[in-house]
């Protein structure tokens, strides 16, 4: 059975490149504000990632690797390379979920602001870590050296996840890990390397052309 861990737009909308100076003191709200300020100054980024999933209703466990590009507003490209090739692309209006081994692509509209959850709003630049979440420090058993973990609970419950955790460097707030917990007890962990921020990622990276012979499944927007 193929385990497909990636679920857009959730994962793409939550991954934020973070850097800057750590706030003084131990107030989690101050750290959340520092992360939000840094995030607001990041227009695009690329990174390598390792995505691990454990638990859930089916007690699954899997590890995948790949590369991600994100550009505000709403553009993202998640390229999974191992063990299964798959691609998730959004041009800001449409999301394409492509599984080449199955010759299948799902086409969905990008949620509009009024219908989007907090996760989507973060990517589009309209969400806010201090306004939309309640932050608190959390202790993790495998916390990397010289880092701190901040857990965020959405003030408005989200259907896709229960809470989010950002693991950042204590000195410069560089993002090391991102962890989300779903309502079925599953934990999705992203570990990032090779960050490059504000490098002028081309819009062409977010154009997806459906290959010939591919089955297309369309999810239309809900009628008004």
Provide the helix percentage: 10-25%
Mean pLDDT figure:
81
**What's the main sheet like?**
12 strands, mixed
Biggest β-sheet: strands ordered side by side in the sheet:
7-8-9-10-11-1-2-3-4-5-6-12
Number of helices: 4
Concise description?
It is built from 4 helices and 12 strands, in the order ααββββββααββββββ. It has 224 residues and is mainly beta.
Secondary structure topology:
Elements: H1 10-14, H2 28-40, E1 44-55, E2 60-71, E3 75-82, E4 86-91, E5 94-99, E6 104-109, H3 118-124, H4 129-132, E7 133-137, E8 147-154, E9 163-169, E10 175-181, E11 187-197, E12 215-218
Parallel strand pairs: 6-12
Antiparallel strand pairs: 1-2, 1-11, 2-3, 3-4, 4-5, 5-6, 7-8, 8-9, 9-10, 10-11
Write structural notes for this entry.
By secondary structure, the chain is mainly β. 13% of the residues lie in helices and 41% in strands. It has a 12-stranded mixed beta sheet. Strand 5 and strand 6 (104-109) form a beta hairpin. It is globular and about 55 Å long. 33% of the residues are buried. Residues 5-15 and 20-24 have low confidence and may be disordered.
């Amino acid at each position: 059975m193929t385990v497909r861990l990636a679920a857009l737009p959730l994962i793409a909308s939550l991954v934020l490149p973070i850097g800057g100076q750590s706030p003084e003191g131990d107030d989690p709200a101050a750290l959340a504000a520092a992360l939000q300020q840094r995030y607001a100054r990041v227009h695009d980024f690329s990174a390598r990632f390792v995505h691990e999933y454990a638990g859930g209703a089916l007690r699954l466990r899997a590890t995948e690797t790949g590369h991600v590009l994100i550009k505000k507003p709403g553009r993202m490209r998640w390229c999974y390379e191992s063990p299964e090739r798959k691609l998730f692309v959004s041009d800001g209006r449409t999301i394409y979920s492509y599984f080449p081994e199955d010759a299948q692509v799902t086409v969905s509209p990008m949620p509009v602001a009024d219908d989007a959850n907090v996760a989507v709003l973060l990517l589009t630049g309209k969400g806010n870590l201090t306004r939309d979440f309640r932050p608190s420090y959390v202790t993790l058993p495998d916390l990397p050296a010289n880092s701190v973990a901040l857990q965020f609970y959405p003030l408005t419950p989200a259907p896709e996840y229960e809470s989010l955790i950002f693991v950042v460097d204590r000195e410069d707030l560089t993002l090391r890990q991102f962890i989300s917990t779903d309502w079925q007890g599953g934990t999705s962990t992203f570990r990032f390397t090779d960050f490059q921020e504000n490098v002028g990622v081309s819009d062409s990276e977010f154009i997806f052309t459906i290959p010939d012979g591919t089955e297309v499944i369309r999810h239309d927007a809900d009628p008004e």
